[in-house]
Amino acid sequence: MRTNNRREFLKNGALAGLGLISSNVLFASSTMEINKDSSLNFQETGKRLLGSGKHQLEVSAFGLGCMGMSYHRSFVPDRQVSINLIRKAAELGINFFDTAEAYGPWINEELVGEALQPIRKEILIATKFGFVDGTPAKGLDSRPETIRKVVDQSLKRLKTDYIDLLYQHRVDPNVPMEDVAGTVKELIQSGKVRNFGLSEASAENIRKAHAVQQVTALQSEYSLVTRQPETTVIPVCEELGIGFVPYSPLSRGLITGYINERTKYNANNDNRPALPRYQKDAIIANWTLIDALKDFGDLRGLTVAQVALAWLLAQKPFIVPIPGTTKLAHLKENFDSREFQFKPEELKELTAALDKIKIVGERAVGQQASQINN
Ligand SMILES: NC(=O)c1ccc[n+]([C@@H]2O[C@H](COP(=O)([O-])OP(=O)(O)OC[C@H]3O[C@@H](n4cnc5c(N)ncnc54)[C@H](OP(=O)(O)O)[C@@H]3O)[C@@H](O)[C@H]2O)c1
């Protein structure tokens, strides 16, 4: 992080904390200047709010998904490159960073902790518990004693004494949701955790959890190829004042045009080869979606990824996607998409066109499928 920018970031963060400048100023980037002269309908859309009341978090329009820097996205960049990228994200105005015990396991939390330690008070860290030994393939474990143990270990790895948002990574059918929420409630009372979240929980489980400990955010897969949350859980989040954090908002790179039927993966560190949507026939069949996004974006100076991300933001004000990347160019591209403001008519037309495209291939199979929407 360059000293001047870092100083500016810290100064702005401190001023915002004191309520002396508006968050729009805090999140304004150099693109503000471009806006003034641009003939395009870009707008600075600023911060978003997740949750409500005393469990509300003020976050940038996008968070940064850090998983792929260590886990499940084939290559792992040099560690210092990832640390620099995370710090650069903060410098650009991203204040919401996503990790989990399971990413690695453990090494992604260590990476995120090291990267963010110098600016810990200016940013928000979200992490997750919920698997045996932090390993999804070993099964689910949300027993109260495990949650307490994992939180202590996560705090060490993250080099911090509090977690801003602690998600249950997957619902554990063997532990009543009330017990999970009650355990997190105690952790909040002890100061180790500040807010509670769920991931891939059903409407019924969201309600059960929220009745015991207010839920700040639900993190579930949501993108232009996975639209089920629109009818299942997003309405519940809206009703209860819970934020919604779409994970894999670019469908693991699929909705960018970068992945095609010839793409090779490192099967030892990638879950995509095992998922139906990343099989050759499905990629070819679903290319109609890429074409539609490209047609829309070409006329407006947007990339395929930017249209896909701007579309997600346009769905609800409490939606905060967390695209993952290992590249500064993609980070900037993704974050800049917050500035595109759809005209109501063009949003309607694009959505109607996208609604007609039938997506080929299930989003998950086997153990992964059995662990979602519980
Ligand atoms: N709660 C859960 O169960 C769960 C599950 C999965 C993920 N997550 C969280 O969600 C985050 C994001 O999910 P994800 O990584 O699965 O999917 P994603 O954000 O939809 O896609 C990430 C992939 O897209 C590529 N990409 C990103 N921006 C791009 C751009 N502008 N142009 C071209 N390619 C681009 C990245 O490659 P490059 O590195 O080359 O840019 C990476 O391979 C994770 O980091 C994690 O924090 C949560």
Automatic annotation (TrEMBL):
GO terms for cellular component: cytoplasm. SUPFAM superfamilies: NAD(P)-linked oxidoreductase. InterPro entries: Aldo-Keto_reductase (IPR050791), NAD(P)_OxRdtase_dom_sf (IPR036812), NADP_OxRdtase_dom (IPR023210). Keywords: Oxidoreductase, Signal. Residues 63-353 form the NADP-dependent oxidoreductase domain. Pfam families: Aldo_ket_red. Transmembrane segments: none annotated. Its EC number is 1.1.1.-. Residues 1-28 form the signal peptide. One of its GO terms (molecular function) is oxidoreductase activity. This is Oxidoreductase. It comes from Sphingobacterium mizutaii. The gene is iolS_3.
